[in-house]
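Sharing in case it's useful to others searching the archive later.

Someone asked me privately for the predicted structure of Major facilitator superfamily (MFS) profile domain-containing protein, so I'm posting the question and my answer publicly. Question first, with the sequence:
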Amino acid sequence: MRLALSAGIGGLLFGYDTGVISGALLYIREDFEQVDRKTWLQELILSMAVAGAIGGAAIGGWISDRFGRKRSILLADVLFAVGALVMAFAPAPVMIILGRILVGLGVGMTSMTAPLYISEASPARIRGALVSTNGLLITGGQFLSYLINLAFTKTSWTWRWMLGIAAVPALFQLILMLSLPESPRWLYRHNKEEEARSILEKIFPANEVDDEMNALKLSVEAEKADEHAIGDNLIQKLKGALSNVVVRRGLYAGITVQVPHQFAGFASNETALALSLITSGLNAVGSIVSMVFVDRYGRRRLMLVSMVGIILYLVSLSIIFLEAASHAPKVNQLDTNSIPNTTCCSYISTPKPSSGNCMSCLKAGCGFCSNTANEYSPGTCWNSPRNKEIGAVGHGSKTVVQANSGSWRLFS
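And my answer, the predicted structure tokens:
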């Protein structure tokens, strides 16, 4: 359990990184005007961790096979901790991007190596549950990231704290991993049979160690035979693996499962953080359910049940969003046209602007300013949703809009 939980901190780092940036970016945009104005910079900050993770996963497999699972995780911890600190003290967006790349490398390496390390050191009868601790800690990391995001929203360093504090669990895992053994399977494969046996003696009862050693021997020999048949270099191995219909179907299924998780987003800082907190909390609950039943009912059955649930709820969300869009507050054409230099030209040029609503205003690339008397009543469509210099007075029950006054509600 100590080995599984210690290695599983890699999952927590993975989950924390994927969750924290959604909240941190909201405040990075406030500190760096160029990030706020240039969407490609925002996309670069978000995507560089993914790019780093792709590279980390690619080299992580080679490192873990060559130097061991333990050393691969230790290296990932160093990369993650350094990347988190680089982001925390970043003087410019380019340093945030560099930090994201380093963090991504660490995430990619640990997301591949940690489950492998746990599975190779786990008894078969509880292997599924122990490997699931990594998944539980991924969702736990996401939940933790949203809690930390909420905790630091009122501090002066906001996003710096959000990103920099990730170095703490990375260093904690590094310390724990130093006291843990190498994977017995990796040791056996590299002709270190006595070391492998000594580790298995700590995991299994004495009367089961010989059986486990025999099983390990047969498994490693079969693996080597398969590799020899496929080919010795990476290209040959990939080609051989992808030519297997079972491997291909598993790969397609795994990719398909991940895609639906990436679609929804919310504009409000507080709403985005709160909803993400709820989702990540339920993710953690789902991971616990998986741990309880995965070894009893199998991986495939749980996957099918979860996919049915995902499909049903995504369809439900789509219907809700469509209904919300069609019933969005109308645009008050009189107020919109009467405020000098702020009317959204692209909205006015759309077909039938007089019958438009908040959603049609946003689709035109403008900002919708709601009615303060009743946010469901008609509002105004403004030209520059993030213009800090706006200072105008609306008509009727409209709010007085002043820069940084906090007395306006703008949806963009």
